[in-house]
Specification:
alpha+beta, 3-stranded antiparallel β-sheet, two-stranded antiparallel ribbon, 1 helix, elongated
Length: 155
Amino acid sequence: MYPDHTHHVPTQRAVEVHQPTPIAPAVVTPAPVVPVQSGTVPAVASIVLPDGRIVTGYAIDHTQHTPAATPPAVSRTAVNVALGGIGFLAVCGGLLLLTSFIAALTAFITQLITLAAVIFGGWIAVQVLSTSGHKGDGTTVNIRKATFKRNHFHG
């Protein structure tokens, strides 16, 4: 697929050095100044440089650029900032409502837990403090026909 690499001795090339030849300044007479009508540019213009050289070239007509459209009364940046502010306020309002809802829900759950604790605690207190139908001297336990009343054995 790929050619085998063979070692080649690099060939020597002759180095040529080119030196620019200076141009001898020719005696140049400045171009006569031609009066130009205002608003028109001649097709070819010549300029005399301070060192006496003359540069001749084509003149370029300058075109006036017309604005594409008049800018709006309010810049787009200001509109974007205003819309961003409105969006930020909407998000903040939503978050405020969400946090208020969470706080109210937490308070409601806390009240339910407190109410359940009070009801359950009251029920336990009623169970402990009431005799639940036994009107006697205390708890009666019958063991093999023997009776214990107030921790006294009655046989």
